[in-house]
Each structure stands twice: as structure tokens, then as C-alpha cells.
Here is the input.
Amino acid sequence: MSMKKIIKVKDIEIGNGKVTIQTMLSKKTTLVEENLADIIALKNAGCHIVRVAVSNDDEVVALRKICEKSVLPIVADIQFDYKMAIASIEAGASKIRINPSNIGDNSKVELICKKAKEYCIPIRVGVNMGSLDSEVEAKYGRTALGLAKSCIKCAELLESFDFFDIVLSVKASSVKTMVEACKILHKSTDYPLHIGVTEAGTKETGVIKNAVGIGALLLEDIGDTIRISLSAEPIEEVFASRRLLKSLNLLQGATVVSCPTCSRCNYDLFTFAKEIEEMTFDIKQNLHIAVMGCVVNGIGEGKDADIGIAGGGDNNFVIFQQGKVLKTVTSDNYKEEFLRLINEKIME
Amino acid sequence: MSMKKIIKVKDIEIGNGKVTIQTMLSKKTTLVEENLADIIALKNAGCHIVRVAVSNDDEVVALRKICEKSVLPIVADIQFDYKMAIASIEAGASKIRINPSNIGDNSKVELICKKAKEYCIPIRVGVNMGSLDSEVEAKYGRTALGLAKSCIKCAELLESFDFFDIVLSVKASSVKTMVEACKILHKSTDYPLHIGVTEAGTKETGVIKNAVGIGALLLEDIGDTIRISLSAEPIEEVFASRRLLKSLNLLQGATVVSCPTCSRCNYDLFTFAKEIEEMTFDIKQNLHIAVMGCVVNGIGEGKDADIGIAGGGDNNFVIFQQGKVLKTVTSDNYKEEFLRLINEKIME
Here is the structure.
């Protein structure tokens, strides 16, 4: 990631080594007040950049109002009409996303580039499997290579207009295709990459597809900004993105490890682990918490935890730090005591 | 995967190229009837092998009853006591899982190997970050290499007793550590690998951690059998495993792609996509279904779908096949008609 060009979207940098989280508004763009409220909630949930679809003049008017008051940088998503792209830039978008293959004449793409340069905003070249460049598709087929080549061709078109303020993305609903295409892009260019699996499906399936695809890339230090696409509310995309980044130590915060299902456990660990996770989800500093079923394994397996608890049978619980017992508590007070000690840790 | 040794767990092969799904019973082992009912439900949900903890004589008695009637092969999970391992083998377990470092004297491990050989069942050498071999830990630290070396040392101990019917696993709650350790094992041995992230946390966090870790390995053809460890019911682990394998085309079945959040959508796509996914979740043949928000993008992006539907505005919906329009339906009958056509596809 560190070798990538840094692209600025208002005050957010893409490509500086810190992976940013994006989502897209789900309400009609014209519902200005509702969308502004959503943007505040999304920022509080951990989102860095928000995208909004702009398809007609009414939406351009709404976009201007949203951009004026938004607490997050706004990316205007343009499907076909170059006039919408130009109007969105003039309306205050901090970045636009286009697929140049869908815009038509190259002269129209050139006009968009000129306007973006005038307003000093970047363009994301976003190519999806559903909208490949037709010549490239004819040559390489609907493959990962075709997807990557399509995107590179579009970026070269922008470069031919002396425009280099570019973020790239190649998305597919096939995890394998998307991963392979991103790896090709990563090798071929130094523009930062926006990564994600598109049309990933319902929340339950989509989270898994995105975790596999985005995760595999981030494990190899590929990817600078992510969107987890779900058929679910945008805030769910943001929460899932945070969990994903935390799982790879790419985002600070509390993490709760807890035992899987096992008949050795003597208390309602599932509920307790969930409660602890919810109560510590918004902590901004690293804190490794373990919620374990039994003492036998629990303390050993929770060795790396800053603080942990393990059920001990006979209504006893043991609270431990880095593998060493701190104190024993009972089923009457284990929750309060554990939370009190977590808070102490946070205050340290 | 194809280069791995094939290990048989009753009628299930590990290492034959087909990735199998495992989970662990969550009820007390002594609750025989409840566990047998759970095993039936787990099999119906798509589970191939089930593990059960055996820690005392009562549980050995229960294990025997479970093994006699179980519809899935049973793996006995042993923590420390070699007598429990031997008794579990005699009680009919189809495989046992031990961490030789936890068993004590090598002579005890030898007795387990002899008994397993007598009963022709395999042993999984399962090493977790919480129970590394102490010499290896002193030399390599609590690292991925230490984890892999610990496991290899244990496997060599079994080999020294002329025992080679082995499956290996190295688990950690750190995704990166587990992925790295599995890659080392994959290069170093030809025993099949059981892979998973342990103590992965709550359902929501744990699914993501496992999808990243297991997914990254499976993308590189590493891993022969999986368990997604969650602080949730075993059946949730099985459902998540199926979604994960489907996302990498490692399991046949229906897949539903559907649009992410976008203001262009004119109907309640989230609910509809979820309904379609639930209704087709158990289909055993490959069927690629697309549920799209709008016609503009939908048909193009759903090009690879066997059958798809896209909202068209004005209460119209378009049903399409491989990118070509099949028919137009209205908001009054789109659900029934789409389901009818999906059923036709299945019957073909």
C-alpha cells in the first residue's frame, strides 16, 4: 500500500497506508435531510467516505445541499451521462466515480477530466464485470484479465487527457475473479485501489464473500479503501468493514476473542461474549479481551489477552491478565467486576 | 489439495479435493438423545463430521451411545487424559483429536497410537496457540513458525510410533498467524489440513475472521476440511461454512447475487433477496440467481445469471436469463412468477 500514489478526497487520503471505509447512501438522493442524518450516523459508525447516486437534475440540486452540510466527503456516482458528472463536480462532490466505457465518446470523458481538474477532485475509474469495455471483452472475455485490462484502458484514456488524480476499482460478484483482477491491477499501476465484491447478496452471504475477497487482498497488502457491498442498510456495511479491518489489525479498537461451541462450558458464554463485544465495540484503542468457557483451556488460550474471564464451574469465574490469574469472582458479580476491570484498563 | 494423503473418517474422506465441513456439539456430551437429534439437524444443514468433547467416564459411556446411532462420523476431542483417548477409541469414535503436547509422557501418546491403529482410525494432531510445545515455544516464540513447528514436532512423534493416519491443524485467534502457520504446514507435510480460526468471537465477528482466514487459504488451494468456530450454535457454524465454500465454488448449490444499497432501487430488494436466498438455500445443484435493483444496470450486471429479476420502475419488473429479457411482470405477480421460473430451471 505504501508504494501507491496518495489521492485526496477532501480531508481523507486514499493510499497513505491506512485503509479507509466507504459505503453508499440507500435513500433517494433527493431526500436531503434524511441523507444528511444518515451521513452523521455513518460517520459515528466509522465510515470515512460516502457515495451517492446522481442520475438527474433534481439529484444534482440535492447533491449540492448534501455536499454543503455533509460531515463526510461525498463521492458522486455517475452511470452514463457526462453532464451529470460535470454538474456533480460543480455541485461540490469531493470525488466522482465513473466507468468511462459507459460514458460514450472520449470527448465527453475529456470534458469530465477538465472539470475535475478545474475543481481539483479525483476520479474513481470503477469497472464492473457487468460493464466491460467491449473491445477488451472481445479480446480477453469475461475474465479477471479482461476486467483488469478494461480498467487499465480506461485509466489510460484519462491519462491521455493529462489527468492522473485517479483511484481504480474492478468489481465482480465472483470472489475469485475480483481477487485475481485486483492483483493484476496492483502489479500494473501505482494508483490506489478501491476494493470490494459487488452484488455480493444478502447480509449473511455478502459479508462472507466480501471478507474472503477483501481479506485475501488485504492480507497481501493490496487495497487502499474498501466497500463491503450488501443488500442491507449502509450502516451494516460500515460495521462489517470495521470488523474486517480489525481482524487484520488494520483498525485500532477492542477485540473480543471467545470460545466456540463446546460442551465443557458451564455458563451462557454466547450471550456474555456478545454483551461484552457490544459494550466495547466503540473503544478506539487496542484492547484484547478474552471471554472463555472453562479455566482448563481458557487461561492458556487467552494468554495474549490484556484481560480475560473464564468460567470455573461451581459458580466461580476467574479473571486473568496475560495468562495470569488476577482474581476469582462468583456468578453474582462476574459481569460487573469484569466490566469494571475493563474500564480500568481503558483508563490506564 | 490433490497432493495430500487421503484420510478416512468412517465414510468421509479428508484430502480428496472436496472440502468437508465440521462442527462441534455444544450440549453436554452426556445428553445423548439431544445430541443425536442435533447431529441429524447438523447433517441436514450440510455438516460432514461432528466433534464431541470427552473428559470423563460418564462422557465415554455417552460417546458410545452417540457413536452407535449417529448419522455422521464422530470425532472425540481429548484435552489431557490419554485414558480418555483410549476409551473413546474403544467406544467407537471414528477419529480422535489430541494435542500430544498436552498428553504428557510420550509413552502415553504411543499407547493412543497403538489403540488407534488397532481400531483403524485416524488422529488429528490439533495444536492451538494456547498450547504450544514448550521447547518449541522457547525457541521460536508465540509465532506462526512456532505454531507450525509445534504441530510438525507432534506429527513426528506419532510417526516415530509408526503411525501415519494423521490430519493436522494449527489454530490461533489471530487470522494472520493462523494463515501463515497453515502455509508453512502445507509446504512441510502431505497430511491433510483441518483449518479454522479459533476463539474467533461472536457470530458476527467470528464469521468475518474465519472467512478471511479460511478463505485466503482455500483461494490458494490450502485446506481439506474446515471448522468455522463461533460463539454460537453449531448449526450457525455449518451454515456459515456452506456460504463460505459456495463463495469459492467449492460447494454446489444456488447462489443469489443481489444489488448493494443504492438509491436507484424502487422496491424492497433487501427483503426479496433474502426471501429468494432462503427459499433456494438447500438446492443441491448449481443455479446462479440475480436479484437486481434496476433494469439500467441490472440486466448487464446479471449477465452471468441463469435467471434474474430487475426492478423496472412503474410497478414493472423484468425477468431475464443470461442477460436476455425473458418477460415483463408486474408488482402484483413478480414473486410468484420468479419463483415459478426458478422451479422450472431446477426441473430442467
User: Anything to note?
Assistant: Chain A touches chain B through 82 residues (CB under 8 Å).
